[in-house]
Here is the input.
Amino acid sequence: MTPVFTAHNGPDHLCAALGTVVVDDEPLARANIVGLLRTDPEILVLGECSSGGDAVNAVRELRPLLLFLDVQMPDCDGFAVLEALGNNVPPAVVFVTAYDRYALKAFEAEALDYLLKPYSNERFFRVLARAKSSLMQRPAEERRFDRIMVRSAGRISFLRVEEIDWIEAADYYSCLHVGTRSHLLRRSMAELERDLEAARFCRIHRSTIVNLARVQDLCLDIGGEYEVVLRAGMRLKVSRGYREKLHAAIRENGRIRSAG
Here is the structure.
C-alpha cells in the first residue's frame, strides 16, 4: 500500500479549532473517523496518514492537539510513533485498534482513551467529548518534557530524564545510559539535544550528550584532549567543536571541577 499523508490545513489554523490528525492504514477506517470528526465544528482535521512514518512527519509539521492513532500498521506501530515523536507527542492521543490486548499498553503510554473496533458513533463521540474537555483544560504549551517512553523486554515504561547519565548515537537510534542499563530510542541526537536542553543536558560530541548533574570532573587526557569524567567513573571525550558550549554550561552549573 502506498503511504498516504494528506494535509487538509496548516498549523496556523489551530487557534480557531482543535487541530486533529488521523492515522490508520485502513482507508475505510480512516475515512470513517475523518467523516465523524467533520461533523463537529470545534474540530479541524489537519491531515490523515496511512503509515507510522508519515504520522511522525505529519505531527511534527502540523502540530495537532489531538491524534487518533491506529496501533497496528505495516511499517511501525502506534507505540513506535509516540516513541519517535518524543516531546512532539500531541496533548491528547486516542488509540484505535481491533485488538483489546493493547489497552494496557495504551494507558501506560498515557493515551487519553482507547477506541476498540468496531465502535458505535455514540462511543466515538463520547471519546471525542472527553478529548475536547481535556484539551480545553490543558493547553498544549503546558506540557513538559520530563519523561521518555522506552521499551524493555516487550514492556513500555517511562524513564525520568534526570535518571539518564549520558546518551550516545547508535546508527539510526540513540542509546540512553542509565546506570548499568541502556535503552535504544528511535530519536536523533539533534532532537534529544533540543528537547533536553532545559533539563541541564549538554552535547559534548557529535555522538554524545551528557547529563551535567552526573559529571564529576573535566580533565585533559595524555593527548591534550578534554574529557568529562562521570561520577560512576565513565570517561567521555569532548570534541573541539563543543568545548565552548561545555565550558559555558559548566560555568552556569557551577559544581563541576576542572582538572588538568
User: Anything to note?
Assistant: Residues 121-137 form the longest helix (17 residues). Confidence is low (pLDDT under 50) at residues 9-16. The two ends are 59 Å apart (CA to CA).
